[in-house]
Amino acid sequence: TNQVIASYNTKFSEKELEIARLENQVSELEIEKSNLESSLASLTGDNGISDQYDSLLRLLKLYITRSGEDEDDELVTTYEKIDETAVDSEMYREMYGIVKQYVTVDRIEKIFDEGMELYYTSYYKMAIPVFEKCLRLNPDYVDAIYYIARCYEIRKEYADALVYYQQIADRHPESEYFDEVESKISSLTQRLAEASEEEAGDDLLP
Fold it and tell me: Is the pTM of the predicted complex or chain greater than 0.70?
């Protein structure tokens, strides 16, 4: 009887080891499945590699066939959707770089000139979103930052103007605007403080 029991115990131990081994295999397969699903999502999901290649091909087509401002606007919109680092491919980055040069140098200057035309004709409110479009293409386009600040200042929206002047002070100390901007920050900060004191005084009136 003891021998039979020992035999069964041995068999049970072997079965338990087999079950544990199979469970471990199942766990490894589930991890592998999850990794494959993640890889597939990165390839085919929204903004995945496949989408990025499609967007790049569309961008190159728009760049090659561009013939006017309408096409340029569509090209810029498509450019903004592409992640330069999404695909680890030298050719991808090279093709992207060709269009980037056009959009962030040649095209951005045209957009900036449109904003300046509005600025010089005193359409300050309309000029702001045009300059902001420059910043979407190049967040460090200091001329656009400066003239957004100027538009807000002229419209007496001092708090908004101060935000953009501060960007130049913080991020572009080498800029030709830097000395002027420091003075602007000081004067606008004082204006806002005085306005705040006046409002506080009005609140105390009976």
Answer: no
Contact between 76 and 114 (Cβ < 8 Å)? no
Q: What is the dihedral of CA 128, 132, 135, 139, to 10 degrees?
A: 90
Q: Are 29 and 36 within 8 A, CB to CB?
A: no
CB distance 129 to 156 below 8 Å? no
Q: Quick one: which of 36, 107, 99 has its CA closest to 72?
A: 107
Measured between alpha carbons, how far is 12 from 102 in angstroms, rounded to an integer?
A: 73
Confidence (pLDDT) at 67: 73
Residue with tokens 């081994």: 21
Q: State which residues of the chain have pLDDT below 70.
A: 1, 4-9, 11-12, 33-48, 68-71, 199-206
Report residue 90 as tokens: 């030298």
User: Residues 43, 83: contact at Cβ < 8 Å?
Assistant: no
pLDDT of residue 202: 53
State how far the Cα of 130 lies from the Cα of 137, in Å rounded to an integer. 11
pLDDT for position 153: 96
Give the separation between CA 177 and CA 180, rounded to whole angstroms.
5
In the chain, the amino acid numbered 184 is K
